[in-house]
Design a protein that fits this description.
By secondary structure, the protein is an alpha+beta fold. The chain is built from three helices and 13 strands; from the N terminus they run αβββββββββαββββα. The site of arginine has 17 residues, from strand 12.
Length: 298
């Protein structure tokens, strides 16, 4: 009887979750279900090995004794943390050990010389992430052991909170293994494409007001990120040195590379404080776990 109640409960939870997903897909057509991999960079080209050393591939199902399924991108921001989209993390906070982070990866379906696969130890979704509007689409993944940094695996800097908004027309680079065309298939070799940032007026007309302050649009007909690129990096040159920083996180779009439907990205500069604070809180949490006698922990 107990088992029966449990099964009914599971079925109920499962069906509510599916409703949620259907609604999300209806709202934002072409969102990738993690089980279907999603889309590849459209209109891009092969990266060279190590060209985007901060690029991570997220693999789900690690704990089951098999190699898992690729479902999203991410960016290494320091040796212990990867930032990705919140919609790539749903359901993983309670079981981070299912999530594998592959660094130094170039060919998705083969082992690369300097590839490192590290299991997650924590998954932290932004507390104000909205599954329907995709506001605050950002998530942090802590690696269970630090990444070994080198020429093929390295961090990307984050923008500062007070960095100015990137101007319309500036070319930024988005990379990933996602679909190479709408409804297409994943790319084996990491792809990248340069996409222009699209101005506020233009994009809010295209998306009938769905773009909030913390989102940024970039892309043009034929050049875009696509399903499977979610969570991955949009890197733009900033400041006088022109060094590329992690300006955006692939979040959503209507189809891929359609006219007047640019890709929509989470703007990381609005989340700089959240990222720093979340990492700091986590260090404190770990220290308190180890030294439970510390009075300031409680
Ligand atoms: N949500 C998609 C994913 O899960 C990313 C979609 C990006 N779409 C776009 N047109 N730029 O992979």
């Amino acid at each position: 009887m107990k088992n029966f109640v449990f099964v009914i409960l599971l079925l109920f939870l499962y069906s509510t979750d599916c409703r949620k997903i259907t609604r999300k897909v209806r709202n934002k057509s072409q969102l990738t279900s993690r089980y279907h991999g999603g889309g590849k960079i459209v209109g891009g080209q092969d990266a060279s090995y190590g060209q985007f050393p901060y690029q991570a591939a997220l693999i789900w199902g690690m704990g089951d004794g098999w190699t898992g399924i690729f479902y999203c991108g991410g960016s290494l921001i320091n040796k212990d943390w990867v930032v990705t989209a919140a919609h790539c993390c749903s359901g993983d906070e309670e079981s981070p050990e299912n999530v594998g982070v592959v660094l130094g990866n170039h060919q998705l379906f083969q082992n690369d010389a300097e590839q490192q696969t590290i299991v997650a130890s924590r998954v932290i979704i932004h507390e104000d992430f909205d599954y329907y509007t995709l506001e605050n689409d950002i998530c942090l993944i802590k690696l269970s052991q630090p990444a070994q940094l080198g020429p093929k695996v390295d961090k990307i800097d984050l923008p500062e909170t007070n960095d100015p908004e990137i101007e319309a027309g500036v070319l930024c680079t988005v990379s990933g293994w996602g679909n190479t065309e709408e409804n297409g298939s994943l790319s084996d070799i990491l792809q990248y494409v340069d996409v222009p940032v699209v101005g506020d007026l233009e994009y809010n007309v295209a998306y009938s007001g769905e773009i909030v302050e913390t989102m940024l649009c970039a892309g043009e007909t034929g050049k875009d990120s696509c399903q499977g690129d979610s969570g991955g990096p949009l890197a733009c040159a900033s400041g006088a040195g022109g060094k590329k920083v992690l300006t955006g996180i692939v979040s959503w779009g209507e189809g891929c590379a359609r006219p007047d439907r640019p890709g929509v990205y989470t703007q990381t500069r609005y989340f700089r404080d959240w990222i720093d604070q979340t990492i700091e809180d986590n260090e404190m949490f770990l220290m308190c776990q180890n030294l439970s006698a510390f009075h300031f922990c409680f």
